[in-house]
Amino acid sequence: MKARELTLMALLVALGTATARFVWFSVGVAKATPVQHAINVLAAVLLGPERAVAVAFLIGLLRNLLGVGSLLAFPGGMVGAFLAGLLYRLTGRTWTAAAGELIGTGLLGALLAYPVAKYFLGASGAAFMFVFPFALSSAVGAALGLAVISALPAYLRQPGRNQAHQEPRQS
Predict the structure, then answer these.
(1) What is the pTM (predicted TM-score) of this model?
(2) pLDDT(169) > 50
(3) How does DSSP classify residue 160?
(4) Measuring CA to CA, how many Å separate 62 from each of 51, 113, 152?
(5) What is the rounded CA–CA span in Å between residue 74 and residue 144?
(6) 27, 136 in Cβ contact below 8 A?
(7) How far apart are CA 140 and CA 44, in angstroms?
(8) pLDDT at position 128
(9) What is the pLDDT of residues 142-164, one digit of tens each?
(10) b/e for 48-62, b at 16 or more Cβ within 10 A?
(11) What are the CA-CA distances from residue 162 to residues 45, 89, 90 (Å)?
């Protein structure tokens, strides 16, 4: 892993952790943090699915350690980041990263959050109780992430750019 990728990952983790305290809204039983979803789209496009999952995990971990998140950040954020990165890798189209975030977090992550809420947080309710809040939050964030990605120069969004674009080494 290159220093540039680590630096970008650290910046995204810091941004996701810092904004979780200030940029959120309540949707039913869930706390919606759309910046997390925007970061998932950015990380998916710029870093790929594996590193996007690592960024989502670290943001969730730090938010929980700082008391500004819940265990629900893990299934939602990580599944969305992975699917966003995978779809972008397969298609090379930024809109598929946003769609992957919406499906990954809004549906799959929401369904995976139910057993976490039931068994670890003692919540009761229907298995689909997180779908609407997660989908709304991820839709807002995915649109924001897509807007930011679209504003970047095209050469920064090329799949595999970090592997193909090597800086000349100084002797």
Answers:
(1) 0.85
(2) no
(3) T
(4) 16, 18, 28
(5) 21
(6) yes
(7) 17
(8) 78
(9) 999 999 999 988 777 665 544 43
(10) bbebbbbbbbbbbeb
(11) 11, 13, 17
Percent of the chain with pLDDT over 90: 55
- The pair of structure tokens assigned to 97 is 């990263």
**CA gap 30, 147 in Å, rounded:** 25
Segments in the chain forming alpha helices (H): 3-20, 34-47, 49-65, 73-91, 94-103, 110-120, 131-151, 161-164
Residues constituting the chain: 171
What's the confidence (pLDDT) of residue 29? 63
- The DSSP code sequence of 14-32 is HHHHHHHTTS-EEETTEEE
Model confidence pLDDT, tens digit, residues 45-62: 999 999 999 999 999 999
Percent of the chain, pLDDT > 70?
Answer: 88
Residue 159 neighbours by CB under 8 Å, 6+ apart: 88, 89, 92
Q: What structural domains does the chain harbor?
A: 3-159 (1.10.1760.20)
Single-letter code of the amino acid located at 169: R
- Burial category of 164 from C-beta neighbours within 10 Å (exposed 0-12, middle 13-18, buried 19 and up): exposed
What amino acid is encoded at 81 in this protein? A
Residue type, 93: R
